[in-house]
Amino acid sequence: MNMNKTIANVRKVGGDYFRLMYLRKSNLYLKDYINKFNFDDYWCFKATNHQKLIDEEDFLKFEYSCYVFFKKELYDVNKIIEWTDWIKVNSVQNGNGGGYLVIPTPPFNPKKVIIKQ
Fold this sequence. Notes:
By secondary structure, the chain is an alpha+beta fold. The chain has one domain (1-117). The chain has helices at 56-61, 77-93; strands at residues 7-10, 17-22, 42-46, 52-53, 66-71. A five-stranded antiparallel β-sheet has the order 1-2-5-3-4, with helices on one face.
């Protein structure tokens, strides 16, 4: 478990979705959050330009700046992956340099989104 980085949360840890992120100003560490939720109840994604589903071992290393958790009983992992792929492709095509999903996905297929320039 990475004990060097100070970590802050966005939204209530253990809720339907939340983020844990590296924040230099925080005075809390991963050990302060790890007992507030059961990792097996969540889909965990590293929130980077190459957002992907990760396992508990990778999460505990806390190598990236942010991790997003979605409650398994509420969110379909296939829909989340569909949206993360769409965001990755479209943010690069539109010159945004990348992006990632940090909130639950909308209830429709991302291919229905029309981006006008």
